Amino acid sequence: MSGFLGTNAPLEADINLIIQLFMGIALLVGMMLARRRRYRAHAICQGSTMMLNLVMIALIMFPSFRDGVIPDLPAGLRKPYYSVPTLHAALGITAQLLGLYIVLRAGTHLLPRALCFQNYKLWMRTELALWWVVIVFGAATYYLWY
Ligand code: HEM
C-alpha cells in the first residue's frame, strides 16, 4: 500500500518516518524535563521512547534491511543506496543498545556495580546526539530510496 507523504514510499515507511521524527522530538522534550528536575517524567518519556523504537525496528526496519539491503552486501556498499542504510543500521543498533543500557542503569538496580556509570549527563547527552545522527541517516535512506 502506498504512503501518504506524496513520495514513492510504502505506507510503513511513511509511518516509520513520522513516528521516528516524533520520537526524536520526544527525546528532546525528555531532556528538557530533566533540566527542570522532573526526573520521573523524564524517565517515563525516554524509557517509553526506547521501548517503542524496539517495536519499530522489529516490525519495520529490520525486515526492510533484511530484504532490501543484506542480499546485496558486501558488493552493494559502493553505492549510497546500500551504504547509507548499512551505516544507519550499524549506528541504529548502537544507539538502541546504548539507550537500553542507560535505561537499565538509571531506572533499575539490575546492573552490577562495575557496570554502573556515574556521569549521567555525559552518557545521556552522547545518546541523544547519536540518536539524532541515526535519524538523519534514516531520513537520508528514505530520500535515497523514495
Ligand atoms: C535509534 C535507532 C533508529 C532510529 C532513530 C531510526 C530512524 C529511522 C528513520 C527516521 C528512518 C526513515 C523512515 C523510513 O524510511 O522508514 C529509518 C529507516 C530505516 N531504518 Fe532505521 N532507525 C533506527 C534503527 C535501525 C536499525 C537497528 C536498523 C536495522 C536493523 C534500521 C534500518 C532501517 C531501514 C532498512 C530503513 C529504511 C526502511 C524503509 O523505508 O523501508 N534502523 N530509520
Structure notes:
The chain is mostly helical and 146 residues long. It has one domain (11-145). It contains four helices and no strands. The chain has helices spanning 11-35, 39-68, 80-107, 120-145. Helix 1 runs antiparallel to helix 2, helix 2 (39-68) packs antiparallel against helix 3 and helix 3 (80-107) runs antiparallel to helix 4. The two termini are 14 Å apart. The structure holds protoporphyrin IX containing FE. Protoporphyrin IX containing FE is lined by residues 13, 16-17, 20, 53, 57, 61-62, 64-65, 69, 85, 88-89, 92-93, 95-96, 131, 134-135, 138-139, 141-142, 145.
Please sum up the structure shown.
This protein is mainly α and 146 residues long. Helix content is 75%, strand content 0%.
Overview features:
binds protoporphyrin IX containing FE; single chain; 4 helices; mainly alpha; 146 residues
SSE order and pairing:
Elements: H1 11-35, H2 39-68, H3 80-107, H4 120-145
Helix pairs in contact: 1-2, 1-4, 2-3, 3-4
Number of domains: 1
Counting helices, strands and paired strands, the structural category is mainly alpha
DSSP helical segment count:
4
How large a portion of the residues is in β-strands, by DSSP E?
under 5%
Number of separate strands: 0
The share of residues in helices is over 70%
* Oligomerization status of the protein chains: single chain
Cα gyration radius (Å)? 17 Å
Kindly state the mean pLDDT as a whole number? 97
Amino- and carboxy-terminal Cα gap:
14 Å
Low-confidence stretches are none
Largest sheet: none
- Associated small molecules: protoporphyrin IX containing FE
H/E element string? HHHH
Principal-axes geometry comes out as globular
